[in-house]
Design a protein that fits this description.
about 75% helix; about 130 residues; single chain; 3 helical TM bundles of succinate and fumarate reductases; mainly alpha; 4 helices
Length: about 130
């Protein structure tokens, strides 16, 4: 039978008072970066297909990828690769049963965010 005593149960926190947790934000960012990397991969495949098609079409595709938009996409892709890689390492650590307490999980979340930013800057400097 259905629960008749619904009036005494607590309500979920409203969005205006709910504090976003770092672990949920980093989890959402992992999904977003994974999908963003698909977009970058499609652009690279398009560029390679344009190279196989002919010089005129390759010149067009190359101009798009060398424009400010292409540079922005690839800069974001460098960050996304590092972020996705570090988040994957963090999840492997979680899968071993360690780092699941809240303080450690938050430190690992900040480590992924800061580490991906630092590695992106180093990659851009080196390349």
């Amino acid at each position: 039978m259905a629960d008749v005593n619904r009036g005494n149960r607590p309500l979920s926190p409203h969005l205006q008072i709910y504090r976003k947790q770092l672990t949920s934000v980093t989890s959402i960012l992992t999904r977003i970066t994974g999908n963003g990397l698909i977009v970058a991969a499609v652009l690279i495949v398009w560029w390679l297909l344009a190279a196989a098609t002919g010089p005129e079409y390759f010149a067009f595709a190359d101009a798009v990828l060398r424009s400010w938009f292409g540079k922005l996409v690839f800069f974001g892709s460098i960050w996304a690769v590092w972020y996705h890689f570090l988040a994957g390492l963090r999840h492997l650590y979680y899968d071993s049963g360690r780092g699941l307490d809240i303080p450690t999980a938050e430190k690992l979340g900040w480590g992924v965010i800061i580490g991906s930013a630092v590695l992106t800057v180093l990659t851009v400097i080196i390349l």
